[in-house]
Write a structure and sequence with these properties.
The structure is a single chain. The chain has 262 residues and is mainly beta. It contains four helices and 15 strands. Helices cover 9% and strands 28% of the residues. The strands form two sheets. Strands 2, 3, 4, 5, 6, 7, 9, 10, 11, 12, 13, 14 and 15 form a 13-stranded mixed sheet that branches. The longest helix has 9 residues. The chain is globular and about 50 Å long. The N and C termini lie far apart (37 Å). Bound molecules: 4-sulfamoyl-N-(2,2,2-trifluoroethyl)benzamide and zinc ion. The site of 4-sulfamoyl-N-(2,2,2-trifluoroethyl)benzamide has 11 residues, from helix 1 and strand 9.
Length: 262
């Protein structure tokens, strides 16, 4: 899968600072100013095709929890939308706050959501490994979906039930059937798209962001289980709750956000 341990653990778990990337002017996340987004009629609908059987594991990497997929074949693909090539899903993960008042990375007209889901894909038309693609401008495509607190999300519950088994950093549990599309909102044709970066180190500017306009709803109790995870490993004396694992919004630096809808 796409997150070899040594590489991911580069993300210092307590990293929160607005670590500036020297000369980085395509950084993420950003605030999406709805009125300033430019409608682009050339933007096509997104086409995703995921195989739930290729789900491999769910693990706590000390920054978030990741659900990883077998990305050695073209079983989980994303194309269309703003994308010229075909991209492979390697993992999805979330960012959330210590309270329901904040937690998302992107904002919409400065509005914060309690959490945000990221489905991470890499360009398998041009590269053979995720690690290669992560360094290239057109290497990655990440779908961002906002979470709001409301009714219980039946699809999410299977993930939530697995979280107590991975409370500590570096804990892994086998997870062998999950359909990522079960976390999509009903409308995936309305989205904003812009060029940006990973929101954690190495912050490489290799991401075509596709942020859904429609959020999904999860229950307060489901989000509370996210907050029961720990940044720290089992050996560490002081246990730290895994909350507020989001990066602050970054300057737009002249970029245009396009919308697929008017
Ligand atoms: N939050 S985000 O922007 O979707 C995001 C997605 C993926 C990674 C990631 O794989 N980092 C490990 C790498 F690439 F090897 F350094 C980091 C952040
Ligand atoms: Zn993320």
């Amino acid at each position: 899968a796409c997150s070899s341990k040594y590489v991911l653990s580069q993300m210092h778990p307590m990293w929160h600072g607005p670590l500036e990337v020297p000369g980085g002017d395509h950084q993420s996340p950003i605030d999406i100013a709805v009125k300033k987004a430019v409608f682009d009629s050339e933007l096509k609908p997104l086409e995703s095709s995921y195989d739930p059987q290729t789900c491999q594991q769910i693990w706590n990497n000390g920054y978030s929890f990741l659900v990883e997929y077998d990305d050695t074949t073209d079983k989980n693909t994303l194309k269309g939308g703003p994308l010229q090539d075909k991209y492979r899903l390697c993992q999805f993960h979330f960012h959330w706050g210590e309270s329901n008042d904040w937690g998302s990375e992107h904002t919409v007209d400065r509005r914060l959501f309690p959490a945000e889901l990221h489905l991470v894909h890499w360009n398998s038309d041009r590269y053979t490994l995720f690690e290669e693609a992560v360094m290239e401008e057109n290497g990655l495509a990440v779908i961002g979906i906002f979470l709001k607190v409301g009714k219980r999300h039946e699809g999410l519950q299977k993930l939530v039930d697995a979280l107590p088994a991975i409370r500590h950093k570096d804990s892994v549990v086998e997870f062998n059937r999950f359909d990522p599309a079960s976390l999509f909102p009903s409308n995936i044709d309305d989205y904003w798209t812009y060029h940006g970066s990973l929101t954690t180190p190495p912050l490489t500017e290799s991401v075509t962001w596709i942020v859904m306009k429609q959020h999904i709803e999860v229950s307060h109790d489901q989000l509370a289980v996210f907050r029961s995870l720990l940044f720290t490993s089992a050996e560490e004396e002081v246990q730290k709750s895994m909350v507020n694992n989001f990066r602050v919004q970054q300057p737009l630096r002249g970029r245009t956000v396009r919308s697929s809808f008017t």
